[in-house]
């Protein structure tokens, strides 16, 4: 309904412009360059209005496409709540958000020049969490010193503790703060 109404308004503006231009021409004869500039401005206005309208439609379409991609990937699920569609984040989506959050953490080297060290021995029966934990340690900036010993020069103790808590790995993980790494 609104789009139809906007079309009528634009058409009325066009007719008014043509009438005004003809009236102006009777009073002040316009040469062709002035006419073309006036036409260019009017059509420029129409083009801009059209572009703005279609840009909003494109944004809407792109948003719906994004939602569809997230649903197809298993990150979102849509439900009907009180007759309206709602999108909820799935556990897989929450995991993805968590990983993205880890990647975007502002990593700053510790001022005291100490290293954060993580020692872990996670049982085989929860291998999936061990793999998640290793990947998350990499996102946080840890480097593997040995198979289950990882070190990091950044001040990310809080994030590391949250990671351990998230995967319920407290009984299997030790967190240390060391002065230096290696011999010397």
Strand portion, in percent? 15-25%
How many structural domains does the protein architecture include? 2
Biggest pleated sheet: 4 strands, antiparallel
What CATH architecture of the largest domain would you give? 2-Layer Sandwich
Structural class: alpha+beta
What is the residue-averaged pLDDT?
Answer: 77
Residue windows where pLDDT falls under 50 for at least 5 positions: none
Shape: elongated
Percent range of helical residues: 55-70%
Strand count:
6
Radius of gyration: 31 Å
Explain what you see:
With about 180 residues, this protein is α+β, with helices and mostly antiparallel strands. The chain folds into two domains: about 1-70; about 110-180, Alpha-Beta Plaits (2-Layer Sandwich). The protein is built from five helices and six strands, in the order H-H-E-E-H-E-H-E-E-H-E. The chain has helices at about 1-25, 30-75, 90-105, 125-140, 155-165; strands at about 75-80, 85-90, 115-120, 145, 150, 175-180. The strands form two sheets. The chain has a four-stranded antiparallel sheet, covered by helices on one side. Strands 1-2 form a two-stranded antiparallel sheet. A hairpin with a 2-residue loop joins strand 4 and strand 5. Helix 4 packs antiparallel against helix 5 (about 155-165). The longest helix is centred in the N-terminal third of the chain and has 42 residues, at about 30-75. The termini are far apart. The relative contact order is 0.09. The mean pLDDT is about 75.
């Amino acid at each position: 309904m609104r789009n139809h109404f906007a079309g009528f308004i634009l058409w009325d503006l066009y007719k008014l412009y043509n009438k005004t231009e003809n009236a102006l021409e009777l009073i002040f004869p316009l040469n062709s360059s002035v006419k073309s500039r006036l036409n260019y401005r009017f059509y420029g206005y129409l083009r801009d209005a059209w572009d703005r309208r279609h840009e909003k439609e494109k944004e809407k379409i792109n948003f719906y496409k994004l939602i569809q991609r997230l649903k197809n990937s298993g990150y979102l699920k849509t439900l009907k709540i009180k007759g309206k569609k709602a999108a909820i984040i799935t556990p897989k989506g929450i995991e993805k958000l968590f990983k993205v959050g880890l990647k975007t953490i502002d990593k700053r080297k510790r001022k005291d020049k100490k290293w954060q060290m993580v020692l872990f021995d996670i049982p085989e029966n929860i291998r999936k969490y061990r793999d998640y934990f290793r990947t998350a340690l990499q996102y946080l900036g840890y480097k593997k010193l040995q198979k289950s010993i990882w070190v990091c020069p950044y001040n990310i103790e809080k994030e590391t503790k949250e990671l351990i808590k998230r995967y319920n790995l407290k009984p299997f993980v030790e967190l240390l703060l060391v002065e230096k790494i290696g011999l010397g």
